[in-house]
Amino acid sequence: MKHPQILAAILAAALLLTGCTSKPTINALDSPAEAEDRLPGDVTIWPQNEIPANSVRFLVEHNDIRYFGAKSGDSRRAGVAAFPKDSQARWVAGCSDVRDDREIFNVSGTGVVEVVLVSDGYDLDKLIGDGWKPIHKNIVIATP
Predict the structure, then answer these.
(1) In this structure, what DSSP letter does residue 6 have?
(2) Residue 100, CB half-sphere, CA atoms under 13 Å: how many?
(3) Facing residues of 139 across strands?
(4) Which PROSITE patterns does the record match to this protein (predicted)?
(5) pTM of the entire predicted model
(6) Structural domain boundaries of the chain?
(7) How do residues 79-121 score in pLDDT, each as one tens digit?
(8) To 5 degrees, how large is the angle CA 31–CA 57–CA 52?
(9) Which DSSP helix (H) or strand (E) runs through 60?
């Protein structure tokens, strides 16, 4: 090869770019399943072919509301659900594509809570500045 330095530079640039484009993750959804990871009353929220029930993980309880996360088999979609302990009939949930440096999903319901699911390492400063409260590394809620 006439220009090994150029080839080395191209390979180095490719490796650096690959490292910069890693997809966002929610490591809490990769933990082994436990009994508390079942949705209350065995509710099914997401279509099984999109967000499998066995991917649901209990994330946190705050002010008598239990928060769950789930993800698709290919980790391209994630969802969040909030279940008040006093009324299983008033839960909220949703899912969306996992995107770089943005909140994954924001969901709310009348009389329940407004909740945002974020990826690991998400910069919460703007949300906190807007009055949101982190209750888990991946869950942020609106404050009254």
Answers:
(1) H
(2) 4
(3) 117, 136
(4) PROKAR_LIPOPROTEIN
(5) 0.80
(6) 24-142
(7) 999 999 887 668 899 999 887 766 777 888 777 889 999 999 8
(8) 100
(9) strand 57-62
